From TrEMBL:
Domain BT1760-like C-terminal: from-to ranges: 298-473
Lineage of producing organism: Bacteria, Bacillati, Bacillota, Bacilli, Bacillales
UniProt organism field: Paenibacillus sonchi
Family: Belongs to the glycosyl hydrolase 32 family.
GO molecular function, one term: beta-fructofuranosidase activity
Keyword Hydrolase: yes
EC numbers for this chain: 3.2.1.26
Source organism superkingdom: Bacteria
Protein name per UniProt: beta-fructofuranosidase
Entry-linked SMART domains: Glyco_32 (SM00640)
Key words, A-Z: Glycosidase, Hydrolase
PANTHER family: BETA-FRUCTOSIDASE (PTHR43101)
InterPro entries per the UniProt record, alphabetical: BT1760-like_C, GH32_Enzymes, Glyco_hydro_32, Glyco_hydro_32_N, Glyco_hydro_beta-prop_sf
Amino acid sequence: MTNLFYKPDGAWVGDLIPFYKDGSFRLFYLHDWRDNKKIHGEGTSWFELRTSDFVHYEEVGEKLKHGSVSEQDLNCYTGSIIEAHGEYHLFYTGLNPNPEFVEDGVPLQCVMHAVSTDMESWQKIPEDTFYSDGIQYERHDWRDPFVFWNEEAGEYWMLLAARNKEGPSRRRGSIGLCASKDLKSWEIRQPFWNPKMYVTHECPDLFQIGEWWYLVYSTFSERFVTHYRMSKSLSGPWTAPRNDAFDARAFYAAKTWSDGNKRYAFGWDPSKENENDYGDWQWAGNLVVHELVQEQDGTLTVRVPETVSHHFSNKQAAKWDSRIGEWEESEGRIEAAANETYSCISAGFMPETCKISAELSFSEGTRGCGIMLRASEDLDEAYYIRLEPIHNRLVFDMWPRREQGEMQWHIKGDHPHAVELEVPIELQAGTVYNIEIVVENSVCVVYLADQVAMTTRLYNLKTGSWGCFVQEGRAVFEQASISVPN
């Protein structure tokens, strides 16, 4: 089925565990039924998706079935898969909130093991289950095992989302480390990384490109985001690039995998309560995939997967229409000078599923410019994808900014954009930046300059036009177009 941002019928996509085999990405994921426990009962299982192009997905169904209410793995949470010794080894988190699996009032977490010869059926090995020893690490945060072969050490290593026993409560998060020779017995060791910054580091992931190692993890402490660190050695030091995230608030728990040529990050765009722009973010949502690219200095940039971009093969140039302010139009180009004001222009109707592309540049001193989405006929309501050169960032904004109220203090002027949806990027006057915006229903993913991505939701404004805008400055938009699938 064609579904760029996959979501199962009646359920949602949680943390993804990617693997590549036989020309296809095997995307295991936590299947979230949410409030349908009366129908589906308690527990979380791993389901599986398969895709070779991130456009067409095959839902394979439940692959790692959760245990009963009397078993530790009533909830089968995040983990990893590794091929070794002629088998596939699946490591996952087991959690059961029922009293017999609770210690000091908090459910225990543990690492559990299953094996398969073909990745079609999995056999659990309960005797391989192990918990934190409660000495170095807490016993209630011991999850998301990521297993890899450490060639230098000659053993398997397991990274975990863990918490130290000592230290300030909200800074005990560490990436725990265990080691094994046989994938059955594990030695608990000192933390792999212990920065003393966060509550915990969820969904750890590790990979190498050339001389660089990359450590990936997600946090909910200072902000909800997937970070990465880089080092030329597994022993560190692990340094942070200027932009240390793959996206912003609406792309979480990302894990990566390669097809042998390109590497991709697989995360989820959270839904919002009551499918409302003003609702709270929720756990789980729609699948979102970014391509990761290593730059010359070792840093990672993010771009739209090539197959997704090519999916939008029916391309139409912008059809300039209603506007505010003065616009100068020539073939393939439109420009506005709004040095002391705001100007915007409609480019035509925006379909529910589409890709918007443009090349834009701005003059020195410009305070903001970008793309409007689903704008109303009078251009008073819209979503805004805005470049802010003065702050060197890409942001998401919408008007109106809150659900109710007409008074001046109801506008949310103290929130000049969606503060959790901002991405740093160096912006220079006179430079041309390509922007690609992929929209399917409520999911919207923005890619700027083949460097950064910003995912969000578009709920309340269902239809409208797309267009361009500039605020207090001058901007040029070239090759502006909208594409839909054939």
